[in-house]
Specification:
This protein is α/β, with parallel strands linked by helices. Helices cover 27% and strands 26% of the residues. The chain is built from 11 helices and 21 strands. The structure holds ligand LLP.
Length: 413
């Protein structure tokens, strides 16, 4: 579900013509629908209303302030993985008591910053990390509230680069060793172990891997009781998939229907960390056609956006729907590519598209998650502008980078 659609052959975001926005901002530009973001958050929130729960939006999906602030205003929390994400979450006004901190490589400085700001909890990924956090907390005379991330060895049935819950992945503590690790961590005097965390992967469309994971961690919770370890918080991660092409992902309501019967009897606080589900279909990347090139064996539509703006097709061979912003007559088959000097710089291959020409606008759909947040300055390209649409109004929430921005921080004179 999202608020992008065609009216009289023109692509709209909510009540504004995409073409009118691009005319003002130039291209490439990311355009987000505020209503889509909010409704996605509300869907998950509503699905879990029967239990005490906290939704921590995973900032890595899209850490633009316009998006974080929108969610903060809805009462949403944050899932962070770096000092930078902590900084942005706090700057956006997210309550520290709604921030959870994951990631395998937290530095001492990052731990200290999170402790000083009294975040809700740390999701620890290893024993050495627990030892380090214990030391940092001791120095600051703080008790750190922690969950330990358990790697359940469950196949999330998704792309190999974005599956995280298999025993060969670097994340969390293996389920077979988890009991031992929890007992050791419980003995560290500056830590309070109150949670189990799992996150098995991203773009998951099937509920069964979640159910299997949950059953495993509920059994672990039970196993910890005799040692006096009382787990009152279960963090079931993010990963809910969206529709890019013809996937049929479970809805939050269907997901909740399966997991709530397992969670309710426990009386625990449930934490969720959705990223893609909230913002994925809430954003598009709009770009202008520079050239139509007839190659030896193929046609190419060459855009002014490149893999530095949206790397998912290049990196994961991810599919994104590509549309002409204004419907045009005629059809042709082409690869949709960027201007970057790499053969991997493409948005789609062998697509049948309307007969667009130089100067026409193209939209790469479902680009709200892991789009701008993974953008780079490769080829000294300036990062694109970002626009947030609310009804019939829009706001540039990030201006396009300037050439001076490309020199920022460099010492050369
Ligand atoms: N929690 C943890 C601990 C995570 O590692 C992630 C994502 C999330 C939550 C949010 O997952 P989501 O709900 O967005 O699936 N760049 C890749 C996706 C990488 C996901 C990394 N972790 C892509 O473009 O598909």
């Amino acid at each position: 579900m999202h608020y992008f659609g065609f009216k009289k052959g023109e692509l709209y975001c909510e009540n504004i013509r995409v073409r009118d926005i691009a005319k003002k901002t130039g291209t490439p530009v990311y355009i987000y629908s505020k209503r889509t973001v909010i409704e996605h958050f509300q869907k998950i929130d509503a699905a879990f209303f029967e239990v005490d729960h906290l939704i921590c939006y995973s900032l890595k999906a899209n850490a633009s302030m316009g998006i974080i602030k929108t969610l903060q205003q809805e009462g949403c929390g944050a899932d962070i993985v770096s000092g930078g994400e902590l900084y942005k979450a706090l700057e956006a006004g997210i309550a520290p008591g709604k921030i959870v901190y994951a990631g395998v490589g937290k530095t001492k400085e990052e731990m200290a910053a999170a402790l000083k700001n009294n975040i809700f909890m740390f999701n620890l990924e290893s024993l050495p990390e627990a030892v380090r956090l214990n030391a940092v907390a001791g120095k600051l005379k703080k008790i750190a509230e922690v969950a330990i991330r358990v790697n359940p060895d469950v196949d999330a049935d998704t792309h190999r680069y974005i599956t995280t819950g298999k025993k060969e992945n670097k994340f969390g503590v293996n389920i077979s060793k988890a009991g031992e690790v929890f007992r050791t961590v419980a003995g560290l005097k500056n830590l309070k172990v109150s949670g189990i965390h799992t996150h098995i992967g991203s773009q998951i469309t099937n509920i069964e891997p979640y159910v299997l994971t949950l059953k495993k961690i509920i059994a672990l919770r039970q196993e910890l009781l005799p040692a006096g370890i009382n787990i009152s918080r279960l963090n079931i991660g993010g990963g809910l998939g969206i529709i890019y092409k013809n996937e049929t992902p479970a809805t939050p309501a269907e997901f909740a229907k399966r997991v709530l019967p397992l969670l309710k009897p426990l009386g625990v606080k449930v934490i969720l960390e959705p990223g893609r589900f909230i913002v994925g279909n809430a954003g598009i990347l709009v770009s202008e056609v520079q050239y139509i090139k007839k190659g030896e064996v193929k046609n190419y539509i060459i855009l002014d956006a490149g893999m530095n703006d949206l790397i998912r097709p290049s990196l994961y061979e991810a599919f994104h729907e590509i549309v002409a912003v204004k419907k045009t007559a005629g059809r042709f088959k082409a690869d949709v590519v960027g201007p970057i000097c790499e053969s991997g710089d493409f948005f789609g291959k062998g697509r049948i598209l309307p007969k667009v020409k130089e100067g026409d606008l193209i939209a790469v759909m479902s680009a709200g998650a892991y789009g701008f947040s993974m953008a780079s300055n490769y080829n000294c390209r300036r990062k694109p502008a970002e626009v947030l649409v609310a009804g019939s109004k829009f706001k540039v929430v990030r201006r396009r980078e300037s050439f001076e921005d490309l020199l920022k921080g460099e010492v050369y004179k």
